[in-house]
Amino acid sequence: MTAELRGKSAIVGTGHAGFGEAHGLTAYDVMAQSALAALGDAGLNLSDVDGLFCTMMEDSMPALMAAEYLGIQPRFIDGTMSGGSSFVNYLTSATMALDAGLCDVALIVYGSNQRTASGRLVTASRPPAYEAPYNPRYPISAYAMAAARHMHEYGTTREQLADVAVAARAWAHHNPEAFERGPLTREDVLGARMVGDPLTVRDCCLVTDGGGAIVLVRADRARDFPKAPVYVLGSAAESSHRQISQMKEFTVTAARDSGARAFAAAGVTAADIQAIELYDAFTINTILFLEDLGFCAKGEGGAFVEGGRIAPGGVLPVNTNGGGLSCVHPGMYGIFTVIEAARQIRGDAPGIQLKDVDLALAHGNGGVLSSQVTAILGSQNTL
Amino acid sequence: MPDAKGPDQIFQGALTKGEILLPKCEDCGAYHFFPRVLCPHCHGAAISWKQATGKGRVHTTTVVRRKPEWGGDYNVCVVELDEGVRMMSRVEGIAPGEVAIDMAVTAFVGEAEGAPAVLFKPSEG
């Protein structure tokens, strides 16, 4: 998104469903419940939706499946599949479509029942032909190798990785919507079952059910809805690879580029951001994205997160809902970074509500550090 | 042309004869991997095939933890070959946890998932 689109669209509704375990429901059931929740939040109906932005883990034509299920006939759809970043990416295409008059009410929606369906990642994507013979465990082996390289180059420690999980749990502890809220110490993380060196199971995101939805309209009518509008000030994507073996630098993600362009479009800097919602599929993600988005220097992410500095009461509020590590992670988490960022700005965050948030950042990651999408959201005060 | 072979078939065909061929761009001179019909660096389409030196270093590595009854732990790594290309593989001949970043390794054609595949062992000396 360029600066011309700054503030042209606004989030007027958010919703979610099926957090944790959605017994008896299909992924599309959870998707539809999430859609109803977000539309209810916005005071709208499904019949108002004429732009649909959706992808699911199970199918290659998920936007069509979702539209059919919802009983709507949208005049604009986007089902671009860049993994978990897709839903942050839709902020760009939804804003463009709204601004161009291609639709008037944009619904971004996702749902999954992966926990109750199988207990592991369900995906329609094929393992890459030149990696599959070596049986990497997707996606953890990829992130484990990124973590190993970061430790090798910068001296990042397993303790620092663990502190990311501990901070996430501390936020989740205060969030009644979070799936894992019990106490978690650095020792718990380090002593948990190793699944892909150097990552233990507590360095990995949850496997839960859940869905989320976001309703956007053009800015000129954004104040006509029950909740305070949250404006899309900037959003930008950068895609660097698909297979982890093709990643150029294992310690530098395309978030460096997506972040720089999102900040430029919004006309703000990292220092202005009051709430940071990052896609923390694994503990290394948070460290990489804090570096690449400019919250700390490259290589200093480990020290930056150490000892509660990103936990409640720390120096920087990161993943204030508990993140994918402790709140919810139904296959793809990206949409929840946007929902939590929007709720922090609106003032109705489910857990710890930060004071007077005008600017928040949502960052989506897709594939194996492959697709990076950054969005800057702002209150009415930021226009 | 039923005899025509695409880049994937050329690479896999060489492996079945115990050879590791790498695609090299005739225009810019750079190697690439995985095999494809164009050079991802300069986008030239004149690709030739060169015998790999087989020399490389472990760029990064992990141990996939697996229950002993399912075959036990194993190594997955990314090796950077002297030609400048990287490939996923595993280092054999040492414990999976002993594989280290920057370790010098030598390629050989072994078997993975019942098919010929490029594997590595620690370089001697």
From TrEMBL, chain A:
Q: Which Pfam families does the annotation name?
A: Thiolase_C_1
Going by the entry's taxonomy, the superkingdom of the source organism is recorded as Bacteria
Which parts of the chain span the membrane according to its record? none
Q: What are this entry's molecular-function GO terms?
A: acetyl-CoA C-acyltransferase activity
Q: Where is the Thiolase C-terminal domain?
A: 237-378
Query: What PANTHER family does the entry give?
Result: ACETYL-COA C-ACETYLTRANSFERASE (PTHR42870), NON-SPECIFIC LIPID-TRANSFER PROTEIN-LIKE 2 (PTHR42870:SF1)
Under which name does UniProt file this protein? Thiolase
Species whose genome carries this gene? Aquicoccus porphyridii
TrEMBL record, chain B:
ChsH2 rubredoxin-like zinc ribbon domain ranges (all copies): 14-46
Per UniProt, the keywords (alphabetical) are:
DNA-binding
User: ChsH2 C-terminal OB-fold domain: from which residue to which, for each copy?
Assistant: 49-107
An example Gene Ontology molecular-function term? DNA binding
Provide an example Pfam family for this protein: OB_ChsH2_C
Q: What is this protein called?
A: DNA-binding protein
